[in-house]
Amino acid sequence: MTDVRQPVLYVIACGGRPAGGLPDLVASLRAGGWTVCVVTTPSGRKFVNRERLAELTGYPVRDDYKRPEEPDVLPPADAMAVVPATFNTINKWAGGISDTLALGLLNEAIGLGLPVVAVPWPNVALAKHPAFPLSVERLTSSGISVLLDTNRLPQPSSGEPGAASFPWTELRSELKRIYEVCMNRIASTKN
Fold first, then answer.
1. Sign (positive/negative) of CA torsion 30, 82, 76, 48?
2. Which H helix or E strand runs over 37?
3. I want to staple 40 with a disulfide (CB 3.0 to 4.6 A). Which of 1, 13, 140, 145 is the partner?
4. pLDDT tens, position by position, 12-46
C-alpha cells in the first residue's frame, strides 16, 4: 500500500481584517487533510501573525520573491485560496499584473489550471467602482471560483466589526470541494 500525499493549498492573504482569522482557518484545513502554505501581499503582512501561521503550517510565511540562487522553501501548490481578496488584488490580478509574489503565483495558477477560490472583500464603496465587477467577471470567466455577496461587504472604515460578516462557512465548503478535486488529480497521477 502506498500513501497518497496530501494536496498543497496556498492561502494568499491580502491586506484586510479577515486575514487576522487565518490561524483558525489554517488549523481546520490541516485537520481536513490539506498541507497549507501562507503567502501574503505586502499589505497583507500587517494583518497576519506570521509566527503563528508558520508554526501552524510548518512553512515560513512568504511575501516576496526569493533570490534566484535560493531553494524554494514551499512545496508546489495544488490549489490556492485568496483570503481576503482586496479591491487592489482583484483588479491587478484580472489585469495580469504580477508586481508581487502573491499576484505572480495567482497569475501562474490560471495558466496552470489550478483550482482557485477568491473571496473579494472590498468595502461597499469600492465594490461600486466600475472596474471591480469587470475584474470579478474576468476572473470568473477564467475559471476562478469567486465567493462574493455584495450585501455582506463592510462599510468604509468599519474596522473589526466590518469583518464579522466574512463568509468563512462558504469558504470552508468550497475548499472541501476543491480538496476532493485535488485528491482525484493526485490519485489519477498514481495510476
1. negative
2. strand 35-40
3. 13
4. 999 999 999 999 999 999 999 999 999 999 999 99
